Every structure is written in structure tokens, then in C-alpha cells.
What we know:
Blueprint lengths: L2 H18 L17 H6 L8 E6 L19 E5 L7 H12 L6 E7 L1 H13 L11 E6 L23 E7 L14 H13 L15 E5 L2 E6 L8 H5 L3 H16 L25 H31 L33
Parallel strand pairs: 1-2, 1-3, 3-4, 4-5, 5-7
Antiparallel strand pairs: 6-7
Helix pairs in contact: 3-4, 5-7
Amino acid sequence: MARGAKHTMSRKRRSATVAAVAAAAVPLIALPLSGLSPTAAAEFSYFPTEPTRVLTLSLLPGGNDDDLSGVMCASPRTCQDVVYSRASQPEAVAILDASVRDGTTGKKIIFAYSQGGRVAAQWIRDNEGTEGAPTAEDLSFVMMGNPGRKYGGSDRSWENTFPETSYKVIDVSQEYDLASDFPDDRRNVLAMMNANWAFFITHQNYETVDIYSPDNYVWTEGNTTYVFVPTENLPLLEPLRWFGLGALADALNEPLKEIVDRAYDRSYLPAQPGLPPVAEPEPVETLGNSDSLSTAQVQLTSARTESAGESKARTATSPDEVPEVAEDIYGDEDGDADGDGASPDGSEAD
């Protein structure tokens, strides 16, 4: 897609969202980052390798196939837009439930953006563990700009935090997103202004977010993996760039950002950014060690066979000659008192 066309689409998306989200009660936001990192993606993956159907609960009607750099709809995943009611949450939950229980088999992901996160959360509260609901092996969730996010979600004060669940959840938030990274200190006027600008500048631009970027802060609590995506420039200053005042915006960014950041408690973030380490495979016995063990077993068996053969030969040659056999406390050559072929520890003799 041409760059101008992409910007036109983003502007249309922002304009349409102003009206659509008015009924959502809480304003939301998002921020741009770098593109998908193929090298990192090859080393670490958030998703199952099997073919997976992705049910999208988008910010606006039409789906969000291009969000998160399009990774959600990349093979082996296929996306299906769930057209849900934004005016009635019970109706929206019922529509989602019908899509989840449509009789198809295989793995599914519910990919919920913004207000869709509320619908996904309510579906879990109503349906997890009920008869016919998918198990945690077959269903997982990816949240984006989630107002119910445990850390920073704008719904936290309403006691609507996303529920703890047996389902695997990936919760992605961009820094300053008013929906999922709401200021902790609302008395910080600059931070509140920045967050409200972020509703228009950031929340509607998750297309360029790279969840595999090493700049992200990623950590797991229970079954939820949190992805915190830093943003370099304050959304508050973006209008200056629109009018060709980028140099002024750059000069103001750092000092104003220092003030804005005072409104946030970031103590939950890991000490360093980066993806989780790739699990090391279990150590396995090398072929050389296995060969050595087999060789030793063959040699031991051969020695025992030769010894038994020599004893039989001596008996056949001289019936009156009693072969000299070391006396054993268990009563026979093999240390087997009852002659059943088992050694004292219960294992069978070779």
C-alpha cells in the first residue's frame, strides 16, 4: 500500500472512531513502532504452530487484519471478523459465543481490540468451564488496547479488570494508551492532556506495532503474558509535526515527557526490555554414549556365554569331574536360590 494511501486510511479511521467510541464511555489510544522482526519471530513465537482460526473483535466494523503488523492473520492463522453490537454488551457476548461454538474443530484465538476486550472479558466470566465451551488447549486470547488490563487499564476503577482465567492471554498495550495505560495520577494535567491526545493519535494506530520487538517489555503472570510497547514521542506534541514544527516538537519532547511520566507507576515492568528466553531443550544422551553402553552390554553377555560354555564342555568331557564354581550365598552360580532366573533384586538374569 502506498504511504499516502496508508496515511489517508489512518485519518479516516481516526475520524470514524471519534463518533463510534463516544458510546464506549472511556477514551482509548495507541502508538507507532517498528515493523515485524523476522529474526526475533523465528526464535520466539507467541502462537501455536497448528492452523488456527482467529475471531476478531475490532475497534471499528471491518476487522483488524492489519494490526500488530498483520501477524495475527499470517499463516497458519486465518482471521474471521466477528460483527458484534457496540451498543449492547449482552448481545455482543451472545454473538461472540455463537462464533466460538459454531461446531468447527481446531484451535481458535479471540483477538479483541479496545471495546472488544470488554466483550471478551464478559464471555470468559459467563462461559469458561461451562458445557460445550472450548478448553484452554483449543482457545486463547490476544488483547490490544484493553481497557480491562490489570496494569493501566482505564476500567480498573470500575472493578472490571480482565478476569484471571485458565485460558492463555496475550495482553498488548502501547505506552500512554488511554484505554490500557491510563495515568495513575490524574492530577497531573500534562499527563491527562497527553493521554487524551493519545486517544486520537495512538489508540487507532496499532497497525505498526511489532510484538516481537526487543524494545518491548514482556512478562508473564499466571496464564497472561503482558506486552508493554514503549513510545518515543508524546502524542501531545504530534499536532506540531502536522504543521511542520517537528524541530520544536523534538526539543519539547524530553522535558515534557519527564513531567508526563511522573503520573505513571511503572514498578510492575521488568528491569530490562526484551522477549522471554526460548526454553532450552531437555538434555538427551548422545549417540556415542549410547553406543558405548550397548558395547559394554554385548561384551558382558558374551563373557557370560563363554563362561557357561566352558563349564558345559568340562562336564561333558569328564562326568566325574565337578567343575570348580565359586560358592555363592544364594545357592547357585547366578546367585539365584530358587533357579527361577531372577537375581536377588528381582530383575531377570541376562
